[in-house]
Amino acid sequence: MPSPDLPLLAWALWYAAIGIPIFPCFGLHLDRTCSCPKGGACGRDAGKHPLTEHGFKDATTNAVIIAAWWDRWPRANIGAATGHVSDVLDIDGMDLETWQQTTGFWPPSTWRARTGSGGEHLHLQPAPGLGNGVKRLPFADTRAAGGYVLLPPSGHRTGRRYEWIIPPGAVPLASWPADLLAALLPPARPAPSLAPRPAGIVTTVPASLTRWAERGAALGQQTHAAFWLACRLRQHGADEHEGWAILERFAAACVPPADLTKLARIWRDSSKYQGYEPGRELAQSLTLVHRGATLPSAAYRVGRPI
Ligand SMILES: [Zn+2]
Q1: Which residues crowd ion ligand 1, with CB under 5 Å?
Q2: I need a labelling partner for 154 at 20 to 30 A (CA). Which of 11, 123, 129, 205 fits?
Q3: What domain range includes position 284?
Q4: Do 158 and 217 have their domain in common?
Q5: What pLDDT is stored for residue 266 in this prediction?
Q6: φ and ψ at 180, to 5 degrees?
Q7: Separation of CA 50 and ligand 1 centre (Å)
Q8: pLDDT tens per residue, range 157-207
């Protein structure tokens, strides 16, 4: 591990050498304001947001690229893309021991850093599906694939620096304890299920609309198409059972299949727009959807007066 006095570049190169993908974040001026154009107005984000266009997606272990970044921005903070070498459990507002006693979870010995705000980052082996979550447990956030954290000795607007309590190499990187992981994973989202449709209800939905639904829509057009479909189903008096059954067929026909949880929300929201009559422009757009053209989003506004 480099000495804490060494320039940030030395640290960035060390992280890259042990496989952690790195990218630069805005640093702090001596008066602790952010070096981004917002400066003193940057607030809680100060020193925490990316200097490169694509942020954590630019993260690399390539020493040449890293050297060029810190040559250009010597005071840049060190961002690390999470979900590659490690996920991070971010405990803030409570020390680790109190957190352990409060939640009953006792993370194993692993890499630990003190954050600039006085919280702790616990690094653990990446767990599939964990994602970036906020407060699924008290005082705890997670950073995983698609997220990033700052690494020591990045600066913080409080004037403190991030510092290792247990640095990489001092102990093996632990994996998530199963009970802690289960508590932090996003809740499973089962598709809505309905009681069987009561017998004897006469359908009023035109076959043409059902056929339309059964052709599905391409990714990027599913939300618009689903909302239009949901509103038309309502217009034609489809009840909860029938409308949802047709939307399920729409979902299955989509490529890739549409997300049922999202569709359920659209179906629910559509009940507020029962008089919704799509304009000619939209009707034409939706015809084009089936010819593979892009649906112009401007043609479709949920908030359109009805
Ligand atoms: Zn800033």
Answers
A1: 26, 34, 36, 42
A2: 129
A3: 207-299
A4: no
A5: 86
A6: -65, -45
A7: 9
A8: 999 999 999 999 999 999 999 888 888 887 665 555 555 555 665 667 888
Distance 248 CA to ligand 1 centre (A): 45
Examine the domain organization and report whether 151 and 240 are in the same domain. no
Residues of the chain with pLDDT under 50: 274-306
Residue 14 CA to ligand 1 center (angstroms) comes to 25
Q: 47: CA distance to ligand 1 center in Å?
A: 6
Question: 155: which 2 tokens?
Answer: 């600066």
Residue in 50, 18, 33 with CA at minimum distance from that of residue 150: 50
pLDDT for 196 equals 59
Virtual CA dihedral for 108, 114, 115, 120, nearest 10 degrees? 30
| Residue 23 CA, ligand 1 centroid: distance in Å | 16
Cα distance between residue 287 and residue 260, in whole Å: 23
Q: Are residues 270 and 133 in the same domain?
A: no
Q: Which of 75, 89, 78, 90 is nearest to 21 (CA)?
A: 78
pLDDT digit string, tens, across residues 107-139: 899 999 999 888 999 999 999 888 888 777 888
pLDDT at 78: 97
